[in-house]
Amino acid sequence: MRKQTLVVLTWTIAAVLLLHGCAGETPSKKAEEGALSLSASHYPVYLAAQQIVSGVPGVALDMFLPPQAGYLEYARLSEPDWQRAQRADILLLLGGGLEDFASVLAAPGGKPLIVAGEDIDRLPGRVLDPDESLVPADNPYVWLSPRRWGRVVDGIAAGLCQLDTNDARKAAYIANNNAAQARVTAVSEQLAEAMLPYAGRSVVSLHPALAYLANEAGLIVVRSIDRDPSAQLSDADIADIAAELADNLDAIVLVEDTAPAKLRALPRTVALGVLCNGVANGDASAWEYTMQQNILALTQALSQLQ
pLDDT tens across 190-239, in order? Predict the structure, then answer.
């Protein structure tokens, strides 16, 4: 593993967007005097930040967006959301297209932002507007890839080490990041070992986050089916999806565990956690636990299709 001091120096420029000219005290000055408040956009960003700030005295963490269904990149920043964000000293984003409203928060006079995953390599996503362009957008759901998740966590640590001048807290961020990276490595190795007998097997993805899990597992996504994860599906919708799946009878079908029951009941389907939604003050081990459960479910589904 890389030494953390080098990690911080490497990621500072890419991980942090520091807005100058903010009204009032800077986060650095407030951090010297007492508490520091952080607010994350979506649940996976909150989870990543939890890895770094859990147990660090004087640091409070919450989310300024409420949990919501559907594609997260379609979330809009309401007035109450914006007001919640303004109560924090530092805002935490993922970047890479996840927060379509990022330009509003980055306006002059706003809060400092840590954009923890802006430069992470991404898989192709969906065609967002066929009338404008048929080129797929980047897929922002990087957190089901252990390698990429580790970089998100690392980016938050780097940003906080730049913005917080409290030396004791900096040391805690670095120690927490080292421990988090060790957990990520363990999950990555577990995934690689479990998937070794199934390398190159075909899968169909019904949620964009699951393409990252399949990619890191050495599986081949032969088809992605676009659907609204927040919508209930009619019998006709289910029949249409089943007809599409009939073209890939040698593939298991990856769907999120919150999908409609009728969809999860289709043949060869395995329901997996995608960590798109959750509440603040939840279990800090949610990512590790979910990934371990996903590895188990994938292994069982692939073994049954042989």
Answer: 999 999 999 999 999 999 999 999 999 999 999 999 888 888 899 999 99
Separation of CA 268 from chain center: 26
Report the alpha-carbon distance of residue 288 to residue 122 in Å, rounded: 21
pTM over 0.85: yes
Within 10 angstroms of residue 209's Cβ, the number of other Cβ atoms is 24
* Strand 202-205 to 252-256 pairing: parallel
Residue 291: phi and psi, rounded to 5, are -65, -40
> Which DSSP symbol is given to 68?
-
Q: Are strands 59-63 and 36-40 parallel, antiparallel or unpaired?
A: parallel
DSSP 6-45: HHHHHHHHHHEEPPPS-SS--HHHHHHHS-EEEEESSHHH
Comparing CA positions, the residue from 250, 194, 248, 183 lying closest to residue 217 is: 194
Contact 104, 82 (CB under 8 A): yes
Which residues, at least 6 apart from 65, have a Cβ–Cβ distance to it below 8 Å?
A: 41, 42, 75, 77, 81
DSSP code at position 234:
-
Helix (H, G, I), strand (E, B) or coil at 120: coil
Task: Identify each DSSP E strand in the chain by its residue range.
Answer: 16-17, 36-40, 59-63, 90-93, 113-115, 202-205, 220-224, 252-256, 269-272
